[in-house]
Write a structure and sequence with these properties.
Blueprint: H1 8-12, E1 31-33, E2 42-46, E3 55-59, E4 64-66, E5 85-86, E6 103-107, E7 113-115, H2 117-121, E8 126-133, E9 156-165, H3 166-173, E10 181-186, E11 199-203, H4 204-207, E12 213-218, E13 221-222, E14 232-234, E15 247-253, H5 260-263, E16 267-269, E17 285-287, E18 294-297, E19 305-306, E20 312-319, E21 325-331, E22 339-340, E23 342-343, E24 353-359, E25 365-375, E26 398-404
Parallel strand pairs: 6-15, 19-26
Antiparallel strand pairs: 1-2, 2-3, 3-4, 4-5, 6-7, 8-9, 9-12, 10-11, 10-15, 12-13, 12-14, 16-17, 18-20, 20-24, 21-22, 21-25, 23-24, 25-26
Length: about 400
């Protein structure tokens, strides 16, 4: 992205954004069918949230907006106005004065900092393409059903993020010897006084790896308010819980973070794929961390009719999770055999990657197409769906059924 695509003053100008209190559900915008086994099947589509186009309404307070899946067929990057939204607390600012906003850096450092957006924009610029995916993406597909937002597959998106490396900011403050973690907080607040403020932490080495960054733009434009304006932590290859929105505070710790959002929330079974049996107990848990590979067909919806005797064009998107995509394969015989697809341009190891393949003419009847991604670390999607009580890390092989006639 060229400098002209992101003028510094445009980044720092701030926005006159309307209040979210006015964002009542726009029922007139229609509904969409989500194939969730636990229902409800019909979900409202809303256009009432600032900076957002038509989105599937999962919740209004806090706002949870799902990207309609057809958007993922339009390109490798998810448009800002269709990028999904997920907040933990309902008390979020409805407007932010960019000129007075400051990012604080404090704790176990040589010099505490209070950085303006101008100062950050003057630091060395960094860009990376990366998928942001909710830990609970696809939770609505879990059987048996688990509590939490009943997302289909649209609680994810891919963007080109622009900003500064976290490492450069930490170096400016001077991390003291003995530091072990870095904790991040944003401007959202709990709705009740005794609830825990949302904060997440990374190990110091991870925070300083040169890929973790503080973004002030996505896809060449400043961040939408609902996606974290004016600053958002970007943690490539990790689930969205670590991508703190409206980032305002960075605290270097000389001890492990033991607050609620690290010690209690967002934990997974410490077993491969976080996959356990319903009702299973007695396993150790650990904080959720690295994403795992996934692949989706984007041009064929489940149940669609296709013509018998004619080739079928198939295309979709895949991502490797915490690394790149090695292969995407298609099976039309229940997984007995697999056909490799053609991979599209590689925008980086943390990005969506397009794929396509032409299937030979299919005989009449019901035909199932399975799609499987293997990442560059050799990790392949499991054939069966994942299950755990939190509804996290779903990445079982997707199946689309065609009606051939």
């Amino acid at each position: 992205m060229s400098q002209s695509a992101l003028p510094r003053r445009a980044v720092l100008a701030g926005l006159g954004l309307g209040g979210l209190a006015a964002a009542a559900p726009a029922w007139a915008a229609g509904t969409v069918r989500l194939p969730l086994p636990g229902g409800p099947e019909q979900r409202a589509v809303t256009t009432a949230f600032p900076g957002k186009g038509a989105m599937i309404l999962q919740r209004t307070r806090p706002p949870l907006l799902e990207t309609p899946f057809a958007v993922f067929d339009e390109g490798v990057f998810t448009p800002n106005d269709r990028f999904y939204v997920r907040w933990h607390w309902a008390e979020i600012p409805t407007a932010i004065d960019a000129s007075s906003f400051r990012l604080t850096v404090r704790g176990h450092v040589e010099t505490a900092l209070s950085l303006s957006l101008d100062t950050l924009a003057g630091m060395p610029r960094f860009e990376i393409a990366a998928v942001n995916q909710c830990s609970g993406n696809s939770r609505g597909l879990f059987v048996p059903r688990v509590p939490g937002a009943q997302w289909a597959n649209g609680a994810m998106g891919n963007a080109l993020w622009t900003g500064v490396r976290l490492k450069d900011v930490l170096d400016r403050a001077g991390v003291k010897a003995g530091a072990v973690q870095v904790r991040f907080a944003g401007l959202d607040e709990p709705v009740v006084s005794d609830a825990p403020h949302f904060r997440k932490s990374l190990a110091l080495d991870h925070a300083r790896d040169g890929e973790v960054m503080i973004a002030y733009a996505m896809n060449g434009a400043q961040l939408p308010l609902l996606n974290g304006f004016p600053l958002r932590l970007v943690v490539p290859g990790r689930y969205s819980t670590y991508w703190v929105k409206m980032l305002s505070d960075i605290e270097v710790l000389d001890r492990p973070d033991d607050q609620y959002w690290m010690e209690t929330a967002y934990r997974i079974p410490d077993v491969p794929g976080a996959n356990v049996r319903p009702g299973q107990t007695g396993f150790k848990t650990v904080p959720i961390d690295r994403m795992v590979p996934r692949a989706f067909l984007t041009n064929l919806q489940d149940g669609v009719r296709v013509a018998a005797g004619a080739p079928v064009a198939v295309r979709g998107i895949a991502f490797g999770g915490d690394c790149g995509v090695r292969t995407v394969e298609i099976s039309t015989d229940g997984g007995a055999s697999w056909t490799p697809t053609r991979l599209g341009a590689d925008a980086g190891g943390y990005s969506f990657r397009r794929f396509d393949v032409g299937l030979p003419a299919l005989a009449t009847g019901t035909r199932a197409i399975k799609v499987r991604c293997t990442n560059t670390n050799g990790l392949a999607q499991p054939m069966d769906p994942v299950w755990n009580g939190a509804g996290f890390m779903q990445n079982g092989v997707e199946t689309v059924t065609l009606q051939v006639a």
